[in-house]
Task: structure prediction
Amino acid sequence: MSAIAAENIVAALGVLGAGAMGWRMIASRRAATMSVAGGDSVHAAPPSADALSRMIETLDLVPAAVLVLDAGGRILHAGPGAWELFGDSLGAIVRHPASLSAVLGLRDGDRAEVDMMLDVPIRRAVRGQFRRISIGPGQSVVLATLQDGSERDALERMRTDFVAYASHELRTPLAALTGFIETLRGPAADDPSAQQRFLEVMAGQAGRMQRLLDRLLMLSRVQMIEHRKPRGTVSPAAIVSRVRDEAMPLLEGGPASLAVDLPAGLSDFAGDADQVVQVLLNLIENAIKYGSDERDRAVTIGLRVRQTVPAALMGVVGAGKIHGPGMEGGVRQGIAFTVTDNGPGIEARHLPRLTERFYRVEGSSARRTGTGLGLAIVKHIIDRHDGRLTVESRVGKGTAFTVWFPFGEVVSLKRHETVIDTSCPQPADPG
Result:
């Protein structure tokens, strides 16, 4: 079945469900309803609590993301499917210009379909289907069914990005491999010592390409599920234990050491444990790579865990901080992990761009060349968790990255709550 046909079926289910509960009342007053509804759609009478509540009882049984809006675009009710799929993004969806334009232009019986792209806090592709129905004399509502096309959109973007990024980043190691192969076939064909040197360099270039491909695939996987909120519960102590174990191969045989500060009694938080571990490992790996300078001095890496609020993070960073989505407000408690190093530090002009793909600090004297994707992966994981990322660095003094994860989801409305407000017919935020 095509996507369009499936969407029409979902919309029809919502409309039929609503009509089944209110059909007798609508049929007996059809003429009066149509004459009243012919006026200004935005200023149509609000629905009565009785008619709306009976309709909602049926709509909540529909396995789809269904909203009930008033004629001005204000959310009267969000079904469980809508909360499950979109959560706090519902307000941004109904306020989107395309959505508002469609709703305000509807008259009784009309339907409209629009595609919307949300960029904050994360990129989401949403298709909305709207239909206005009467539920009483001069009373009408708009039924909206929403579909999330974010994964399809992300897949298309990743296909394009992968070709662009891979062709750009793989060009250098491939050129090096090609040059050494030609040399081995020609001038170095009978020189065993030169062959060994060249083969060692070629192995390094092949490893570089493998790391790049691994990171590109990891970034793709992270982006694919970025719009899905994590459902698990994460223990800070368990996370630190895993990080210690998995970071051991990175620390062995080098000048870096890891010191952990983990207070007892920290609360669990909502998150994807594997992704949280990946964030900390990426930060520790960066500290190892970029924490040493030309003297190859010992690198001391710290991992400090504490319970705090985002406002506290704002108070400890300077002008070169990086923010996650929704920094306004920020009263939720959460767990902050801070990874520090005693390396050469990063100049302030680089800090705002650290999470860009393939961005590398100019003139870096890293122990190993990175892919430029580690912090981009960190950013997407933190966005999925509604977290925060800050960085503080002083040249010659070291760098501190702090990632903060909230304890739980905060929503603007109680789930399944019906709101009827006749005093404000204009579109409003559901909060």
